[in-house]
Write a structure and sequence with these properties.
This protein is of the alpha/beta class. It has two domains: about 10-230, Alanine racemase (TIM Barrel, Alpha-Beta Barrel), CATH 3.20.20; about 250-345 and about 345-375, Lyase, Ornithine Decarboxylase, Chain A, domain 1 (Beta Barrel). Helices cover about 30% and strands about 25% of the residues. The protein is built from twelve helices and 17 strands. Strands 1, 10, 13, 14, 15, 16 and 17 form a seven-stranded mixed sheet that branches. A five-stranded parallel sheet has the order 5-4-3-2-9. β11 (about 270) and β12 (about 275) form a beta hairpin. α1 crosses α3 (about 45-55). The protein is elongated. It starts with a strand and ends with a strand. Pyridoxal-5'-phosphate (PLP) binds near residues 211, 226, 228 and 229. Pyridoxal-5'-phosphate binds near residues 167, 211, 212 and 227.
Length: about 375
């Protein structure tokens, strides 16, 4: 823990983001992705708040152990938890699913085989995710393997698909070619749905869309959408669209204290590696470093939203980082002052992302445990 840096999370803004999303996908339920500790914002508080205050009932985690943690932390509410990628379906863990009402998302033939072979899974909803072109996880869609899947399911009497899914690889890109690829993925998904219906299966829920797709109205007519990033604030389209439609508020604000302030002359060596100051100015040493997940790639990033528009200067250290201010005017903070590295205006974190080349997902997820999360309602 450290006292010099905080991630302040405003839950009211999370509620307004959920409400804004409800307008974009008015016919779909939300399956909110809270994996990786709620994209760094705290999986449990974010889930509890959206359950109690925003009407969300479905959550997505990446691993079985995230799912177990979430279920145990909030035993008083009933809600669906989908485990997306690291399932552990072998007999050693199979019981955990039925005991804790966790739903594994099956994304390969070997996962399907384990699911169908363990008796305990007969009480667990069947969720199938198909590979329609992202080529990461996903059941195969070629005819032979699809027929094999159908046969395996029928042999076990599993004719009800609780949730049929796919995932887009390029929905955050707005250029013509990736857009066409996303549309082709959507078309393949619809074909799979039809093939199951023709084979006599019933399908309760369907979903395809992450933030980028939702923002662009792709797949928003299905029973569910699966947003992550956009509910934490930033538009997923930001890397290639300067004026995204999504106007979410960044629910977090990173506040960091100034530990030291010193006036410097041009060519003063600063920190590890002794980077030379380009002109006279002021250096403020901040209470954050890569030990907190604040990457060395943030060197040379300018905080345009702050008075004096300082730049991270020299190498970012494990526990500290230097900001350089040209000049020495009244816009320069004093020792003990707190600076907002990013605020609730999503353009701040997006500007940091664009300058450093670190995607907003990574900026958020990297923030370590040493930074306390503070929640306001
Ligand atoms: C299967 C799946 N669906 C939805 C999402 C949410 O994506 P985003 O945060 O871009 O909305 C993710 C995130 O990685 C995912 O893996």
């Amino acid at each position: 823990m450290r006292l010099g840096a905080n991630l302040d999370i405003d839950l009211k803004l999370l509620k307004s983001n959920v409400q804004a999303l409800t307008v974009l996908a008015s016919n779909s339920d939300i399956l909110f992705m809270v994996k990786a500790n709620g994209y760094g914002h705290g999986m449990v508080p974010v889930t509890r708040f959206t359950l109690e205050e925003c009407g969300v009932r479905n959550y997505g985690v990446a691993t079985l152990f995230e799912g177990l943690k979430l279920r145990k932390a909030i035993p008083e509410h009933s809600f669906d938890i989908y485990v997306f990628s690291e399932n552990h379906l072998s007999s050693q863990y199979a019981e955990q699913y039925s005991h804790n009402a966790l739903i594994p998302v099956l994304s390969s033939l070997s996962e399907l085989d384990l699911f169908l072979s363990e008796q305990v899974f007969s009480r667990v909803p069947l969720v199938l995710k198909f590979n329609t072109g992202m080529n990461r996880l996903g059941l195969p869609i070629n005819e032979d393997e699809f027929d094999l899947i159908v046969t395996k399911l029928k042999n076990k009497g599993r004719r009800e698909i609780f949730h049929l899914m796919t995932h887009f690889g390029r929905s955050f890109e707005t250029l013509a070619e990736p857009t066409q690829i996303t549309q082709e993925q959507m078309k393949s998904f619809e074909e799979i749905r039809q093939r199951f219906l023709q084979a006599g299966f019933s399908i309760i829920f369907t979903s395809t869309s992450n933030s980028g797709a939702i923002e662009r109205g792709i797949g928003t007519g299905l029973s569910h959408v699966r947003p992550g990033l956009m509910l934490y604030g930033p538009s997923a389209l930001s890397t290639n669209s300067t004026r995204p439609n999504w106007k979410g508020h960044c629910i977090s604000s990173l506040k960091v204290q100034v530990l030291r302030r010193m006036s410097v002359k041009k060519n003063t060596p600063i920190g590890y590696g002794g980077t030379l100051t380009p002109r006279d100015g002021t250096i403020c040493v901040l209470a954050i470093g890569y030990g907190d997940g604040f990457s060395t790639k943030l060197q040379n990033t300018t905080l345009y939203h702050l008075p004096g528009q300082p730049t991270f200067f020299g190498r970012i250290n494990m526990d500290m980082a230097q900001l350089f201010y040209a000049g020495s005017g009244s816009s320069i903070p004093n020792e003990g002052d707190v600076l907002e590295i990013w605020g609730h205006d999503a353009s701040h974190v997006l500007s940091i992302s664009q300058q450093s080349g670190i995607i907003p997902y990574e900026i958020y997820c990297a923030l370590g445990e040493r930074i306390p999360r503070k929640y306001t309602l």
